[in-house]
Every structure is written in structure tokens, then in C-alpha cells.
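thought: fold this chain, then report.
action: predict
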Amino acid sequence: LRMPPWLNFWLLGAIIMSMALHFLILYVQPMPLIFQVTPLSWRQWVVVMKISFPVILLDEGLKYLSRHHLDGILWTVSQAWDRRHLLNPCRSQEPIGKGGNGILEAQIGRA
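observation:
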């Protein structure tokens, strides 16, 4: 997917609504008592960021590699698969209930 997220207004609305509901539950009384949650301290947020940063970095690196370096490889593999598939058609797409080998029978003239 190569569409920038700021062009998808439904996605942006869902993200904003989700964050607003989370903050409402965490910081507006009596919601934390009802949902039995406590907000994180700044020190806890720092720990969360330290743990999350390598995961985000790895994910973004893999997205970069897949978009800039694997497109040609994947295109070549898909083209090779299409050519091989055209040369050797799959026989499993025959109608169910047809007796014997339908492709062979059609070639012989019995079908």
C-alpha cells in the first residue's frame, strides 16, 4: 500500500477517535475507576518508548527494503510463475463430478 495515510480521512478519523477514547478513559474522572486503569508516569512512558523504538525502526526498515529493493525481485518471480502456469495449466480447476481426466478426455474427443 503506497497511499499516504493523511489522504484517507476515514483512517485519520478512526485514529483520532481511538486516541480520544483512550485519553478519556485514562484521565477523565470517574472513567479510570470504572475501567480500573491508572495512567502511566513519565518514567513508565520512557520505558515504553525504549522498548518500542527498535520494533518501529525494524518495521520501517523492512518496509523501506520491500518498497525499494524487493519490487523488482517480486515482479520477476511473479512473471516467472505466470509463464510456468500458462505452460502447465492446473488440472484441479475441473468441475467436480466429471469422471476421469477431463483435460485428456477433451483432447481425445470423449468429453
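thought: worth noting. Residues 42-68 form the longest helix (27 residues).
final: C-alpha cells above.
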